[in-house]
Give the backbone structure.
Amino acid sequence: MPPSSRLTSKCQVTVPREIRKALHLSPGNLVYFSVEGGRAFLSPAPESHARALKGLGKDAWGALGGADRFLRRERDSWS
């Protein structure tokens, strides 16, 4: 049986110790909730949003032939 917790009268819930340890959560941490397909998900907020986004989409430049090549083609199209 997976870890569980009961909803209080104030609609609060205690995150089970196993889950806190697995997600490296401690008191005061911000967490995000999402619902997909009738299931709720809990994920820790990144300590730095900038660091979490760093490198996101870097593979997209490869599909375009690299950033320099893409920019050269774009600039050439302006003429």
Notes: Residues 1-47 form a domain with the Pemi-like Protein 1; Chain: D fold (CATH 2.10.260.10). The first strand starts at residue 31 and ends at 36. The two ends are 65 Å apart (CA to CA). The chain has four helices and two strands.
